[in-house]
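Section: Multi-chain targets

For targets with more than one molecule, the full set of components is provided together so that the structure can be written out for the assembly as a whole rather than chain by chain. Components appear in the order listed by the source. The example entry contains four components.
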Amino acid sequence: MKDKPLRSAPTPSVRRMPRYLRCLHALRSDRVEWISCTFLAERLNVDPTLVRKDLALTGITGKPKVGYYLPDLIMAVERFIGWDNPEDAFLVGAGHLGTALLGFEGFARHGLNIVAGFDNDPTKVGTTVADKPILDAAKLPDLAQRMHIRIGIITVGARNAQAVADLMLSGGITAIWNFAPVPLDLPEDVILENEDLSGTLAVISRRLAASGI
Amino acid sequence: MKDKPLRSAPTPSVRRMPRYLRCLHALRSDRVEWISCTFLAERLNVDPTLVRKDLALTGITGKPKVGYYLPDLIMAVERFIGWDNPEDAFLVGAGHLGTALLGFEGFARHGLNIVAGFDNDPTKVGTTVADKPILDAAKLPDLAQRMHIRIGIITVGARNAQAVADLMLSGGITAIWNFAPVPLDLPEDVILENEDLSGTLAVISRRLAASGI
DNA sequence: TAGATTGTTAATCGATTAACAATC
DNA sequence: TAGATTGTTAATCGATTAACAATC
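Its structure, encoded as tokens over all components, is:
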């Protein structure tokens, strides 16, 4: 019942939220009830003001001298990220990477519920991976539409990634998490996040090369 | 023989380099010889000045009106990232994610040469994945030291990640690419890059939740 | 030459950090 | 109360974008 239930927030802040959350969950296991962002900041090795601003984004308010009430804070952060009610997702590409993602138990706690995998390899179609069915990729658009799936995860190779993305769009999917090492050509309004391994690799290589001097 | 062979560069710039490189390689296949950063910028949908500044970091100079000589540019960018001579690496955790990474052909062209995988599952030790041997994790420190390995890739679960990191450090590894969803506690001088899936997931979830309003 | 493009300096923008009054 | 902590406003910092002279 807040005035501004969901406003746009700085992406770096959103990215930090899971780190706070992990720390908060650990504190809850320790039966902590009140938590100051001074403490949180020290634990995560970031600036206290930054933590305070980030937490303020979730709409929660703390009490001077005591901090934030932990259960409320956890709920506020989860609600802010949208992890309070997990979203169903489809994954295409049941190779090793896809299998790894299908098997990640953690996703459920991270607002993501992968309900099925897709592939066009006939030897894979009809099997299950981590209790999730692997279906024929051709069936994706129809199923996605009927199940109102909004998130698609691409774990196919570079060659097929764009075709898979198009397939997802035709099924009404509006957010794509792309693990293929190619830029995708998508409409402006589609939410796209690339898991940019080569970018990370470049940072590591560069630092290593520079440190050798 | 430049004055400043390797200076610190903005991380966002370094992250963009692989995108330029991919585009440049494609242009080379098309037999293009000269390339302007105006063109590159348009193709990659970024600001031309940004491209110019990024490319300037590599030390290359272009010619007004013509642009940059493609072969030189590619070499300059690769050299800047440190991809001109690939670096050997060890990977620990031969699960699905580890197997996927061991099998990525693309890494060789990205300055990374994973020479072996490690695990402590006896059924995996002694096998090969993508022609790479899976060895007993206990042997890592000694081997890493003898082979002067500097890069370690962690693809084990959250529980074991810190232990694996410590193992790597004891083997003299100085750069860690961490795929486990836990923050690692490492000395300041160790190069660390986390593949932060939950952060990405938060960004997607948040955008999706916000778009629903 | 004219005009496109480079290289560089200045302006803007956004995120982080610092400062400080309000408060329990 | 005294002191720690919140919430907010101002300053800093770094990256991106704009402006423009130099150049082939």
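The longest helix of chain B spans residues 11-29.
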